[in-house]
Amino acid sequence: xxxxxxxxxxxxxxxxxxxxxxxxxxxxxxxxxxxxxxxxxxxxxxxxxxxxxxxxxxxxxxxxxxxxxxxxxxxxxxxxxxxxxxxxxxxxxxxxxxxxxxxxxxxxxxxxxxxxxxxxxxxxxxxxxxxxxxxxxxxxxx
Length: 142
What we know:
Elements (H helix, E strand, L loop, with lengths): L4 H39 L17 E7 L4 H16 L5 E5 L4 H7 L6 E6 L2 E7 L4 H8 L1
Parallel strand pairs: 1-2
Antiparallel strand pairs: 1-3, 3-4
């Protein structure tokens, strides 16, 4: 029993379309990641906006944690931030809900959640986009 040639052509076109869509998706995801890393490099050294939330970050090191309540990766990072804020004394932690403080998030130039911003003397020193581990944050705070 042989398969009709027209059915083989349709199947080949179908698999070609699936392959093109898969490649486009991968290129899109990597493109977004490259854009985020480029944007975050441009933000390094930038001074924090003059707001009451950031007053305690003007001296020494600090951490800004930007999250969204419905973000799954944020739910993984949230316990890490809470634990570190209790353990590391002398380093202020500021939590910003991106859904409620949209204007402040725009001022910071944040594109995705979760984002952890390490500050030093009121300036952005490091930006960590996406889920990060406790060890990574500790290392960046040294």
